[in-house]
Design brief:
Helix content is about 65%, strand content about 15%. It is of the alpha+beta class. It folds into three domains: about 240 residues, no CATH class; about 140 residues, GAF domain (Beta-Lactamase), CATH 3.30.450.40; about 150 residues, 2-Layer Sandwich (Alpha-Beta Plaits). The strands form three sheets. A six-stranded antiparallel β-sheet has the order 3-2-1-6-5-4. It has a five-stranded mixed β-sheet with strand order 8-9-7-12-13, sandwiched between helices. The termini are far apart.
Length: about 575
């Protein structure tokens, strides 16, 4: 009887175990299906969020391309106006064609966003006007500054909208990521609880499920690290975009220096550093901007930097490299990076980045690709601005006096005559000649003569208005154009210049030269001539009348008798 009872108990216990195992299996299957569905749903949300973020970044990139093409059109048309080089106009037209193609692509990208419709239509309209203006552009045409400004405003509005969308979608992606992590962690916890409750008597199964739980947790940790890396990459991309936009707004290298230092500080938080550029003589490196408490010297020779000597980015870290650069005053930092700045094959300088701790070093190394991009972008911007300044000065400036040259004067005179004719205004043209300059030059030498010509140029700069033009016509002859003046004001301005030259004193080689005089001839548009050649000839005739009457005086052409 006891044996049967034991057998019945064993059978009942076995049946109970089987039922429990079947229930556990069914529960595990249902639980697994639910967990898989949730994981799949979270994954789909993450993929969708990433796709929308990428879509927004594509729209921003297209907008940046449109903005760059607008700037190229403006730059090429301006160069065409200054140089009458047909190649520049052809490049401007090519940029206009590329602009149409880019807008077509942009239309597809923003088709899902009704909020961008008005701004896009405005951009299409002003871009069409800009293309028409470029296709019909001539040397005498006015630059379509207004159209370009409207295009840039439309681009700015669309970019702001997309930046807001990017921020919002990044936040949504972050929320989905955290929701996915927490939901999966919750399911892992429930799984472990179920394993403990249902399979505590099955040690092997419990250990197996525990191992699975550990593997799942490790996967979640790797996923969390991946998400963190993606977020850091997104932040880095946003910083680079912002830095690129800021650099594109810079009109001189000083603005580039300040903007670059600010961008480096944002890209590399916790660091100190300086932007150091090689001077024109290539003998010194100067720290033009900095952030934090940088220890680098303000001025140092190029050979003091190991990065410049090697031509490669160079880390100095304890137990890695014990060789220090020598561009420090006294204290040598333990951890720093020297990255050369190169553009168009020329080394412009070096970026110095100083790190206090190993954690900051690791952070900088994580963003080293973004740092290289920002350094390259900064170098290209500086080189472009330097090249633009050099080309402009070479094409329109006299190398000795810094005044506009004769070629620029002739182009400007024709433009000012056309403007004065449209506005029904008077344009005054001066021809100035320094009296007895050849004798002075032969007596005291060309160096003294050059110094006097430079001093004359300074007098002109201080004696005329911002809208006036002072040009070196040739030798000791100068031309000044004064738009929108009356005959009386033109005469009085000329007299003030004549008096200033009479009071001129030029120190040179421990001597002071003085008693300079200038003769000035004036011709007025439209009374004395309606073409550039005629105005210059009439002003020259008035100048020679002043010479014949004793020099050191101002003569207007209208005061010359018909017999002259």
């Amino acid at each position: 009887m006891l044996i049967w009872k034991k057998r019945l108990n064993l059978v009942a216990r076995q049946n109970s175990t089987i039922v429990l195992l079947i229930a556990a299996a069914v529960g595990a299957v249902l639980f697994t299906i639910e967990a898989g569905g949730l994981v799949y749903e979270n994954t789909q949300r993450l993929i969708s969020s990433a796709d929308w973020v990428q879509h927004t970044e594509d729209v921003i990139a297209s907008l940046q391309r449109v903005s760059l093409l607008n700037e190229r059109i403006e730059y090429r048309t301006r160069l065409y106006q200054l140089t009458a080089n047909e190649e520049q106009l052809s490049r401007a037209k090519a940029s206009a064609n590329q602009l149409d193609t880019t807008l077509a692509h942009l239309k597809v990208l923003v088709g899902d966003n009704p909020k961008q419709a008005a701004s896009f239509q405005s951009l299409v309209s002003c871009s069409s006007e800009l293309s028409n203006a470029v296709n019909t552009f001539t040397p005498k045409s006015e630059l379509p500054d207004g159209v370009i400004q409207r295009c840039q405003q439309a681009i700015g509005l669309m970019t702001d909208q997309e930046q807001w969308l990017l921020k919002d979608r990044n936040k949504g992606s972050e929320r989905n990521s955290y929701a996915s992590v927490w939901s999966e962690l919750a399911f892992v916890g429930l799984s472990l609880v179920a394993v403990v409750i249902l399979f505590s008597f099955l040690v092997r199964d419990a250990l197996l499920r525990l191992r699975i739980g550990k593997e799942t947790a490790l996967t979640n940790q790797r996923l969390a690290r991946s998400i963190e890396a993606l977020e850091d990459r997104a932040e880095e991309s946003e910083l680079l975009t912002s830095a690129r936009d800021e650099l594109q707004l810079c009109v001189n290298v000083q603005q580039v220096h300040r903007s670059a230092a600010n961008s480096f500080a944002r890209l590399l938080p916790g660091t100190s550093g300086a932007l150091c550029l090689i001077n024109n003589s290539r003998q010194l490196v100067e720290a033009v901007s900095s952030w934090g408490q940088s220890l680098v010297d303000d001025v140092h020779p190029p050979e003091s930097c190991c990065g410049l000597r090697s031509g490669q980015p160079r880390w100095r870290e304890p137990a890695v490299s014990e060789i220090h650069c020598t561009h420090f005053s006294a204290v040598f930092p333990e951890r720093y990076l020297c990255m050369p700045i190169v553009a168009h094959g020329n080394t412009l300088g070096v970026l110095y980045v100083e790190c206090e701790t190993e954690a900051i070093v690791d952070k900088v190394k994580q963003r080293i690709d973004g740092l290289r991009q920002l350094v390259q972008l900064t170098g290209m911007t500086i080189a472009t601005l330097n090249l633009r300044t050099t080309l402009e000065n070479q094409s329109i400036r006299d190398s000795l006096t810094g005044l506009f040259n004769r070629h620029f004067m002739q182009m400007s005179l024709e433009r000012e005559i056309a403007r004065a004719a449209r506005r029904n205004q008077i344009l005054a043209v001066y021809m100035l000649d320094l009296d007895h300059f050849k004798k002075f030059n032969d007596t005291y030498g060309h160096a003294a003569g050059d110094t006097v010509l430079k001093a004359m140029a300074e007098i002109f700069r201080y004696s005329i208005r911002t809208e006036d033009f002072a040009c070196r016509y040739g030798g000791e002859e100068f031309t000044i154009m004064l738009p929108d003046v009356t005959p009386a004001v033109a005469y009085e301005r000329a007299e003030s210049i004549r008096r200033a030259v009479s009071n001129l004193r030029v120190p040179l080689d421990k001597e002071v030269y003085g008693e300079f005089t200038v003769s000035i001839g004036i011709a007025l548009f439209p009374n004395d001539g309606d073409t550039a050649d005629l105005l210059l000839r009439r002003a020259d005739q008035a100048l020679y009348r002043a010479k014949r009457q004793g020099r050191n005086q101002v003569i207007q052409f209208e005061a010359i008798s018909a017999t002259v």
